[in-house]
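Handout, section B. The chain below has 236 residues.
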Amino acid sequence: MIYQTYNQDCRPGLKNIADETVDLIFTDPPYGIKGAELDKHYNRDESKVVSGYIDIDKDDYADFCVDWITECSRILKPTGSMYIVSGYSNLHHILNALHTTKMREINHIIAEYSFGVYTKNKWVSSHYHILYWGKSKKTYFNGQARSSNTKESYNDRLSVQKLTREYQPDTVKNKNQLPVSFIEKFIEYSSQTGDLVLDPFAGSFSTGQAANKLQRNFIGFEQNIHAYETFGQQPA
């Protein structure tokens, strides 16, 4: 199986990937909200979190989105799809960039988590947006990939998904790390064994771990050298 990782900005890196060769993209890009300070909002201990998180200035975020999303659209196969995880602050820039491509929206999924951002004067934010877009009407999706039981499959594919935080106090983590088990579900539904999965913002390489476990090929980019050196090797 292919497991290729690169310690570089994905924007020039993606240009080296041939047109229409990737089956699935799953990614959690920087949010453009001073991500290095997220621990203050979530009231959490970051002693086990790798340093060097790289965010994008809010003034540059619109162009940033157009740059990487344009390349992702180019490299996706006609049957391919992309999942983008985002908060709400700069969601409009991601959507605007997606609408400049020839991709189409398939679903807008909400990932509900139990650990909200502390606020005093407004509603407590406790969800992420997951944008599911496809290259064409031929986009691959297997609704029975995880269960042949119609009821089980229906309940498993509801557009509000539970995002359970993994409590691992003695484990080294990356900033804003998604559980591997959470990502596995999306890979199972939207790709097949032997397909190529890509993550332009690999972070803790949770997407790579999930892809490797499910016998998919993987390409990942991570600009933070500390995250890359800690998580970027192929899982055993």
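Note. The chain has one domain: 3-231. Compare this with the example in section A.
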